[in-house]
Amino acid sequence: MSAEPHISPPQLEVSKPKAHPKSSSLWLDALSRLVKSKTSFIGLCLILLLILTAIFAPVIATYDPTEVQLLDRYQAPSSEHWLGTDELGRDIFSRIVYGSRISIQVGVIAVGISAIVGILLGGIAGYFGRWVDQIIMRIIDILMAFPSILLAIALVAVLGPSLTNAMIAVGIVGVPQFARIVRSTVLSVKETEYIEAARAIGAKSNRILFQHVLPNCTAPIIVQATLGIGTAILDAAGLSFLGLGAQPPAPEWGAMLSDGRAALQTSPWVITFPGIAIFLVVLAFNLFGDGLRDALDPRLKQ
Amino acid sequence: MLKYIIRRLAMLIPVLLGVSILAFSLMQLIPGDPARSMLGEKATESQLMQLREEMGLNDPYIVQYGRFLGSVLQGDLGESIKSKEDISVELLNRLPATIELTMFAMILAIVVGILAGVIAAVKQYSWFDNLSMTGALFGVSLPIFWLGLMMIWLFSVKLGILPASGRLSNDVELNTITNFYLLDSILTGNWVAFKDVFTHLLMPGVALGTIPMAIIARMTRSSMLEVMKQDYIRTANAKGLARHLIVFRHALKNAFLPVLTVIGLQFGLLLGGAVLTETIFSWPGVGRYVYLAVLGRDYPVVQGAILIIAIIFVLVNLITDILYKYFDPRISYN
């Protein structure tokens, strides 16, 4: 190739993209950038590990996570109980393994709530504009005036403490993020020519919004969802730590930390390992989410 | 500038009204009968009727809201169901503790975060950059309640060098003037108390400040990298200006704006995180007050506290916007 003249004949220019048809896809491009990033690969591996742990929990766990063995209370980590036992003699390793199911559930459902409500609100506000936009965005402003974890605490306080209500509360406080991202993307997409074309051939508003506008918001939504799962798991663990989320004897990681507080002086392993589990899972989603953002929008990469 | 501030204050009114509606509406979400939910299963019908009457629960929603707003505007947040104490007074007593803790955490986060971010950007891809950015990534993923517990275990239980709870040791005397203990100890020249208050602040401050510190460090680094690429920095380099002057006078000044936005937003995180941190460290502030009220189903306290915290957060954001304009007069908000 180096022997070729600087000004190539036109047909050569045209044949080039054909030689690499894959590079024309946003998603394949993003994927290739994503695999190259070491940190997002670590994140992805940790997420896969979490999912596998949740699926095969009964196989991996060495004990029943809720089985009480009062004679084995506060056992230090050993070959029998790998991560020790808690105040009721329950095996901490098995509880953490089963807790992965709760974490995935919390992360996915809470973010699902945020995403569905946020996409609808943001999409409608951005697409219809004017007073619809004004009303929806003022509501979003008001939601954002409350520190998110505090609003979640207040919501669970009135709804009643339970894992379901904790997921709803964490889901609600995550709505503004999605609504704002989707609105701003919709605002830029709706000015494009193909939307004008769709309108010109007489497509109805809801068809344009759902078929043509929203699919273009997929990339930022996926990034926000990935990062949001980490935050949701962290917030929900905080609620459970305060006794507002998962109720005993559920092996929820935040609740396990709360149970272990009483024995902090004598049995630190009770609080050490559930905390590491929360940390690793949140880290995984942050790493992978950061990687996705860089991969889908190379302009942002530093 | 004054015009701008006045306009911004006027724009606050609808937001604050909305905040009050939301805080008020929270009570309407209580499933079933709020009176029964507050008094418990053992309450008799006459007790329930008395509470409904006292709280005006029999009136229409809009009348209840009007009454609520009227009292809030007069600084009256009602009284606690459990202790019958005046909620406004209780909140005022506890606010200094929370503000002292959040300010301490914020200053820690700003100083360490900006410094780490600047050094990481100036020495991009160095060991310091890698180390501090890995640390920042870990920092945003840490559950602060776990970090707090692990610090208590290490520094209080194992090493015994830091107190695990409270604001002041029992055997230390301090004459309170402002209820900001650090300030009070300076004002009264009481250095024994100053040292004691400081050691009490250290662990909760670090626990609360970790996430903002990590976020500020990452933001400062990326913002600095952006600015350092610009022509005027190259010019400053070319004319032989000292490195530290370029970095701190020329670059950081322009790189600071996005960081300022992040700092404003992080205050919300701190005020929310205070509930978890104060619970762990038995810090006698608003956060712990909210936590105890939630456990005791003392709804008016929860309502009053989140209303006050939201108002503080809204005001902090206003101050951030005003500072933003001050730092960058090019920005107009028409």
TrEMBL record, chain A:
The chain crosses the membrane at residues 41-63, 102-128, 140-160, 266-289. Keywords: Cell membrane, Membrane, Transmembrane, Transmembrane helix, Transport. Pfam families: BPD_transp_1, OppC_N. GO terms for biological process: transmembrane transport. Residues 100-289 form the ABC transmembrane type-1 domain. GO terms for cellular component: plasma membrane. It is a multi-pass membrane protein. SUPFAM superfamilies: MetI-like. InterPro entries: ABC_transport_permease, BP-dependent_transpt_permease, MetI-like, MetI-like_sf, OppC_N. It is found in: Cell membrane. Belongs to the binding-protein-dependent transport system permease family. OppBC subfamily. This is ABC transporter permease.
From TrEMBL, chain B:
SUPFAM superfamilies: MetI-like. The keyword Transmembrane applies. It comes from the Bacteria. InterPro entries: BPD_transp_1_N, MetI-like, MetI-like_sf. Residues 95-324 form the ABC transmembrane type-1 domain. Its main location: membrane. Keywords: Cell membrane, Membrane, Transmembrane, Transmembrane helix, Transport. The chain crosses the membrane at residues 9-30, 101-122, 134-155, 197-219, 255-281, 301-324. The keyword Ubl conjugation does not apply. GO terms for cellular component: plasma membrane. It is a multi-pass membrane protein. It is found in: Cell membrane. One of its GO terms (biological process) is transmembrane transport. Pfam families: BPD_transp_1 (PF00528), BPD_transp_1_N (PF19300). Belongs to the binding-protein-dependent transport system permease family. This is ABC transporter permease. It comes from Terrihalobacillus insolitus. The lineage of its organism: Bacteria, Bacillati, Bacillota, Bacilli, Bacillales.
